[in-house]
Amino acid sequence: MPDRTNERGPDPELKPARVAVIGAGPSGFFTAGALLGLRDLDVSVDLFDRLPTPWGLVRSGVAPDHPKIKSVSAVFEKTAAHERFRFFGNVDIGRDMTRDELLARYDAVVYATGAQTDKTLGVPGEELPGTMAASAFVGWYNGHPDHHALHVDLSSERAVIVGNGNVALDIARILVTPPDRLANTDIADRALHALATSRVREVVVVGRRGPAQGTFTTPELEELAALTGAKVLIDPEPTVAEALAELPDDAEPRVRRNLEVLQGYVSSTPDGEDDPHQRRLVLRFLSSPVELQGSVRVERVVLGANELIDDAGAVRAVDTGRRAIVEAGLVVTAVGYTATPVDRLPIGHDGSVPNQEGRVSGHEREYVVGWAKRGPSGVIGMNKKCAVDTVRAVADDLRLGARIEAGDDVESWLRARQPDLVTGVGWAAIDASERDAGSASGRPRVKHCTYDALLAAASAT
Amino acid sequence: MAYVVTEPCQGSKDHSCIDVCPVDCIQPMDEDDFAEAAQVYIDPATCIDCGACVTQCPVNAIYPEKDVPDEWQSYIAINVDYFAHA
Question: In angstroms, what separates the C-alpha of B48 from chain A's closest C-alpha?
């Protein structure tokens, strides 16, 4: 609820404060918005991003066929229009300056740096070409400049996606969606062209546990039913009915709805007939890749069959020793992320930045928010609540009154460190040129997908 | 599509959903109006279908429009109407 602790406006006893927020994704913007909305404190916010562009995963993570979710960017634009807000893009903390240098210029530094370090499978053959991590594949189709040049070979008939969350489903869906359905989205042009000539007919999504343990959200599962030119298969089919039968009455509603949706896919599968032109999306449960094989690139995945055991209340997958071979020329691993490293900011064993209520443990004036704080789960809105929680800690500390009194030389300092600094004006130029190119071709935008193209657009007037 | 707040919200009126809505489409947010309202409502014109509210609702009152149970179908219009007067 709105904070009404002080409706009189800024407390005259408290000096204005300056806060740096690192990472211009949803958590960074929600943090900026919450800081600017504090009634008793006059806070200026500088929002930094490693990329020349803001919006984080709304731009480079959310699938191109999910435009409605992307419309949350209107909220970010409103925050960016605030008079005490500045955007500084193409600045990498750790490369262009240290955390200590930021702390010398800001009263508080909030890390909203996300979780973009892919977890690995830890199996032999994982390094074979043709195998890639989810962040690279997703970045490729979303025009992330770090992944634009990724070589994605779509010349074989089958792809395997390892993982049972929404990222795995996004990747699978993009691979089986008819390219003409993606042509009017903001998908990267290079990916669109590759998908148009894709020979992939079957995508197998592999989950080590059962259908009740997948972390998919129900709408993502339901959406598969609307795929034209592709059918959804469950393997092995009885796992869904068994999971439904064993589901406790107090099960999470999401899990029950997921199983009902999956059961719908089981019962709608026609026997015998098979349209050779139709693509297949197979949800294969109770399987773990134990080895990737191939001579010069990945050719097949060795899957181990699992069974589920109850381990002190947690459902765990245990290898039965049975093996199956699945031929595949593309393997994408979507098995989770750990926090993005930022200039030696600590990362705990659980993959997130150790903190107490948003304060980085053992550090003064440093805070963490979003996926870097909680781990990579929760839909976009969860980061808004998370931002309000962290900002409560920042505000409590700022109310103690200490200020670093550094003056504001930030922009000239940044330009000395990074001549290709992108400010709000530069981003506005990038945004306008992308939208213009989009409206000329019936798309929301046509993304600039390389650093060179982004920086050229930023400096064009 | 959008999400719809149904009958179980009445009498509960927990505001966890409001706290997580990234686009502030769940109203009323104002404390006085919240205290007086029978329940909270989702503005289908603003909702971006992220689903954060669904998982936060302690009384499972929020459904996608197409999945609203038969007995609460009237709430689809009730949510829309709340914003028609706003």
Answer: 5
